[in-house]
Amino acid sequence: MTNINKRYLPVEEIPPALSLKQIGYHFGGGHQQGADYLAIADTSLSVAGGEFVSVVGPTGCGKSTLLNLAAGLLMPTAGEVQVFGQRLSGLNTRAGYMFQNEVLLPWRTASENILLGLQYRGVDKQSQRQQARYWLARVGLTAFADCYPHQLSGGMRKRVALAQMLILDPDIILMDEPFSSLDIQTRYLMENELLALWEAKKKAVLFITHDLDEAIALSDRVIVLSAGPASHPVGEFSINLPRPRDVNEIRHQPQFIALHAAIWDVLRNEVLTGYQQQQQRG
Ligand SMILES: Nc1ncnc2c1ncn2[C@@H]1O[C@H](COP(=O)(O)OP(=O)(O)OP(=O)(O)O)[C@@H](O)[C@H]1O
């Protein structure tokens, strides 16, 4: 008989999926290219398993830098990033990423792009094809399996990129303004699709956006970053709107409007400060 001796941790001891602990990031300092600039300072934030957290802030405040630190693409110059309680010292292999500009390979079909990560992992070909078919169906692109990226609309290419990430079943999803290039209707569709996929699997999501409406509509929590330099959180808001949500409909609810006003109250000052500082730097 197998001796099952699992130790279940009390809820308060379960480490967050992602935790940034008093991190800072200084560009330059002699060993990197670019100007000497303290982008992030003294920033702590965490995302629990299954939680959807958005970060908003003025343009250029350090949102992408924060995400790159969580992805392990940059190493903090102060503090540390932890992934499920373990210090991150290289690429965050528990995370999947989706950036503003999706990077589909133009010479591969939608299906071949989707299974790319499985191929790198050495998954057998039959399983690659099976999983690609499943994910093509999940993102509504079965009929476009053999199309190349240039034959797809912007929204379709985003769906391929989403499937490309989700096929690897990451525990943490990192997204940097993934839908900002889309027209507003396609954007609502994609946001709803993202929520449906997230609600089915409940991964930890860290979502970067400059769009406050999008942040509120999608998230459990919204964190506001200050204007740089030395950007850091200046506000944190729980979004207790009911789920499942339709991102377009939820915007008209009084509770949404009240949350928007409260968050904008904090964000507005940072946006003004950020704008003035950018003019001075320019
Ligand atoms: N290599 C670099 N060297 C020096 N400064 C940099 C470098 N890369 C970025 N920065 C600065 O760091 C700050 C944060 O950049 P980041 O791209 O993280 O901001 P952001 O909030 O994502 O911007 P946006 O809203 O425009 O996408 C910016 O002021 C930028 O000018």
From TrEMBL:
It comes from the Bacteria. SMART domains: AAA. Residues 18-252 form the ABC transporter domain. One of its GO terms (molecular function) is ATP binding. It comes from Rouxiella aceris. It holds the Pfam family ABC_tran. Keywords: ATP-binding, Nucleotide-binding, Transport. CDD domains: ABC_NrtD_SsuB_transporters (cd03293). The lineage of its organism: Bacteria, Pseudomonadati, Pseudomonadota, Gammaproteobacteria, Enterobacterales. This is ABC transporter ATP-binding protein.
